[in-house]
Design goal:
The chain is α+β, with helices and mostly antiparallel strands. It contains five helices and eight strands, in the order ααββαββββββαα. The strands form two sheets. Strands 2-1-8-7-4-3 form a six-stranded mixed beta sheet. Strands 5-6 form a two-stranded antiparallel ribbon.
Length: 189
């Protein structure tokens, strides 16, 4: 049987939106042994814990929204480039203590990888950009930097632009290397 894996993943995102928070729907998207891996945070969630993740995010960012920028499907694998957006109304428990809510807007670049089996999510790996780059989470509490009048941090978008430029530069360098043999001679026709 063939499944519309993109639709399944989009539905899972929808169930976890701040204005929906359909815990049963989110958990029901997974296989019985399905797992959600917070790769950067090095935590994994199974069974009922899957629903707790949705509720925790809903308390941290009640208006949470996932803006999907690019969705790529390759069989049973769905890769998504997105931003997690909303208002930090916390509080956020961290190993260093509780971070009190600031009311600031967040916009966290994220990459998600969904692995499906028979129309259900078997594994969901989430890599959110701010923690992956060593920044604190959520962005509104970054090292005492001041937010703009709308609550956004100017440095976040600058970091994203810098990361994209760096990635583009590395891609260009890799392509140039592909056009040369090991001795440096051009292979272009």
């Amino acid at each position: 049987m063939t499944y519309d894996n993109e639709a399944i993943v989009r539905h899972a995102y929808h169930t976890a939106e701040g204005n929906v928070l359909d815990v049963a729907g989110f958990v029901g998207s997974f296989t019985d042994d399905g797992v959600f891996n917070d790769v950067v945070g090095q935590e994994s969630y199974l069974g009922e814990q899957l629903g707790e993740v949705v509720l925790r995010m809903g308390k941290l960012i009640p208006d949470v929204h996932r803006e999907l920028h690019r969705v790529t499907v390759l069989g049973d694998v769905v890769a998504v480039e997105l931003s997690i957006q909303g208002t930090f109304l916390g509080p956020l428990e961290t190993p260093a203590g509780i971070v009190q809510p600031t009311g600031a807007k967040i916009d966290v670049p994220t990459a998600d990888f969904w692995y499906l089996r028979d129309g259900k999510v078997e594994t969901f790996n989430c890599l959110d950009g701010d923690r992956a780059t060593g920044e604190s989470y959520p962005p509104p509490v970054h090292r005492g930097r001041r937010a703009q009048a709308d609550g956004r941090l100017p440095s976040i978008s600058r970091q994203v632009r810098q990361a994209r430029r760096s990635l583009a530069l590395r891609r260009a360098q890799a392509l140039r290397r592909l056009d040369r043999d090991p001795n440096g001679a051009s292979l272009a026709h």
